[in-house]
Amino acid sequence: MVRADERETTLSFSLAEIEFVGEITSGRVIFGPDGGEPLLGVVPLESVGIAVDPSTQRLRRLPALLLK
């Protein structure tokens, strides 16, 4: 991985089950340095039907899509 300051670093990763607001999905997790702040990316959020509204900086439910 190349960081924003162009330094290269190697981090471990794995697949994990992720639960967020009562919904479960799976996704890749990257293990950062000890004491690092945990982050939840947009892909796992969207896979459980949550979107980030950049104008209000809040989470919102995505509308359900009907399968035909």
Query: How many DSSP E strands?
Result: 4
Q: Could you state the order of secondary-structure elements as H and E?
A: EEHEE
How many DSSP H or I helices? 1
Report the helical percentage: under 10%
Q: Can you give a write-up of this model?
A:
By secondary structure, the protein is mainly β. The protein has one domain (12-61). It has one helix at 42-47; strands spanning 12-20, 23-31, 50-53, 58-61. The strands form 2 sheets. A two-stranded antiparallel sheet has the order 1-2. The protein has a two-stranded antiparallel ribbon with strand order 3-4. Strand 1 and strand 2 (23-31) form a beta hairpin. The longest helix is centred in the middle third of the chain and has 6 residues, at 42-47. It is extended and about 45 Å long. The mean pLDDT is 84.
